[in-house]
Design brief:
alpha+beta; 21% helix
């Protein structure tokens, strides 16, 4: 039915249908057809031309939730809001937990003059199928808060798995020292080498938001994580982090100020304390939204004060919430403290996050990162004749998540990390697999 027919006094009829769609979804669901496009936009093809191609496939793909969600997102970006809302509504009737369709349907409701319904749908998305952190930040700025007051949500997670480098140790088995009389090769002690085994992670995340003047919002985030390693009890670790953000709208975008602090404990001792201040500028956009930022960071190492340093980091990101959410972040900065080994250092990094709906409420979340760091002075005259340390780190994380009902989710995870360095002592690799369960409220 046309979307306009669903509007009435109070909540729109379309939203009422979403409440009931869980009952009828199983009766109308159909097998996804491989030939039905689900995004992204083919290289070199314009949005309008792609929309015409999708329209030609409508008779064959009318029962494919992924196709309907993608078609709706394309129509929404073309400004055909009512047609987009109709396709997104049909996608949700077939697959109620389709994240991309829910996000775009909230956008369509807001554009059609139904802000209350849009906010309510955005709230249910945040409670039952939260997108990656970068996309959550985008949503917080895109949809106005429902009311003045505090709203909170949390997550408790438990994971168990295997890790082939629990202590993040070097791949090297020997240490080569450069001495006046020549090179001396010393074997590393077994305790300094990589140790593999099982682990159990327990984590909690809490978020609270308070709306102020129109478009203004205060958000508080806190997380705690502890890891236990049966068989290697001395490798246990704990991490605590807290972050406060204040957002307010400005012409063609919004500003965000953030302040955070964290501590990391390793083998029963505080290894690192951190503090940071940041400024963000989000730019206006439809479907995808860019932002720019600058962070100042200070790190303190209670056990090794010589490693204390400060840094500044310039960042930029491109965040897309339509269809299948994804985000790309670039960062470059400088660590400055001439007192530590290696002195000041420069670093650059690129990070990508993506999420894909797989049907039946399950989803795949991925994060990839590539970072390079180079020190400006010699690390030590005893290593490679005083060479400057340079490292390149690549990391990949994949999570498959499936809803178990009433806020519960099951998860399977894979983590890969590899660091290459010109000083062999700083080269490392790590692989880990895990299985777990989480509860959101």
């Amino acid at each position: 039915m046309p979307y306009a027919e669903g509007r009435a006094a109070g909540l729109p009829r379309a939203l009422a249908r979403l409440v009931l769609m869980g009952v009828g979804a199983l009766a109308v669901a159909a097998q996804a057809q491989v030939a039905c496009p689900r995004g992204p936009l083919p290289p070199g093809e314009g949005l309008a031309a792609h929309a015409r191609q999708l329209a030609r496939l409508a008779p064959r793909c009318a029962q494919d939730a992924g196709y309907l969600a993608w078609y709706g997102a394309v129509l929404l970006d073309l400004g055909q809001v009512e047609a987009a809302a109709e396709h997104l509504e049909r996608a949700l009737l077939l697959e109620p937990h389709h994240l991309g369709a829910r996000l775009d349907y909230a956008r369509a409701l807001a554009a059609l003059g139904e802000p209350q319904a849009a906010r309510e749908l955005a709230r249910t998305v945040a409670e039952h199928a939260p997108p990656p952190p970068a996309v959550q930040a985008f949503l917080a700025g895109f949809l106005p808060p429902a009311a003045v007051g505090w709203r909170s949500q949390g997550q408790l997670s438990l994971r168990a798995g295997l890790d082939d480098n629990l202590n993040r140790a070097t791949r090297a088995t020997n240490l080569a020292l450069t001495l006046p009389g020549g090179e001396l090769l010393l074997p590393l002690e077994p305790s300094a080498r990589a140790r593999s085994g099982g682990f159990v992670d327990l984590g909690m995340e809490l978020t609270a938001q308070r709306a102020g003047a129109p478009g203004h919002a205060l958000e508080l985030q806190a997380s705690a994580r502890t890891r236990r390693t049966p068989g290697h009890g001395e490798l246990g670790q704990e991490q605590l982090d807290a972050l406060a953000l204040w957002r307010w709208p400005q012409a063609a975008g919004e500003w965000t100020i953030l302040a955070g602090a964290g501590t990391f404990r390793w083998q029963g001792e505080t290894l690192r304390n951190t503090g940071r201040l940041g400024l963000r500028r989000g730019l206006a956009g439809e479907g995808c939204r860019p932002w720019l930022g600058l962070d100042l960071e200070a790190r303190q190492h209670p056990m090794q004060p010589a490693l204390d340093h400060s840094a500044w980091l310039a960042q930029g990101a491109w965040v897309c919430a339509g269809g299948q959410p994804w985000a790309l972040q670039l960062a470059a900065g400088r660590e400055f403290d001439a007192a530590r080994p290696g002195g000041a250092a420069t670093r650059v990094a690129v990070r990508a996050l993506a999420q894909r709906q797989l049907g039946a409420g399950s989803r795949l979340e991925g994060e990839a990162q590539l970072a390079h760091r180079r020190e400006e002075g010699p690390y030590s005259p005893l290593l490679e004749g005083g060479a400057r340390l340079s490292t390149t780190t690549a990391a990949l994380r994949l999570d498959w998540r499936h809803p178990l009902g009433q806020g519960w989710e099951g998860a399977l995870g894979l983590e890969l990390e590899r660091q290459a360095a010109n000083l062999q002592l700083f080269s490392l690799s790590r692989r880990a697999v895990s299985v777990g369960v989480s509860l959101r409220w």
